[in-house]
């Protein structure tokens, strides 16, 4: 490292080689391609749950007990 270059010591080289699998095209983005609409569906379902909870809190009849 005293030479001023980008030299890697043995530990750095070891970890660089160990992480090469992360850049393989079969590994990256595979889950996103397998479930193309899952993110939008989760957001929409979350909005539905919040809306339903707000509706039930605002418009629940006063005599209604949680059965």
UniProtKB/TrEMBL annotation:
InterPro entries: NDUFB3. It comes from the Eukaryota. The keyword Transmembrane applies. One of its GO terms (cellular component) is mitochondrial inner membrane. It is a single-pass membrane protein. Keywords: Electron transport, Membrane, Mitochondrion, Mitochondrion inner membrane, Respiratory chain, Transmembrane, Transmembrane helix, Transport. This is NADH dehydrogenase [ubiquinone] 1 beta subcomplex subunit 3-B. It comes from Miscanthus lutarioriparius.
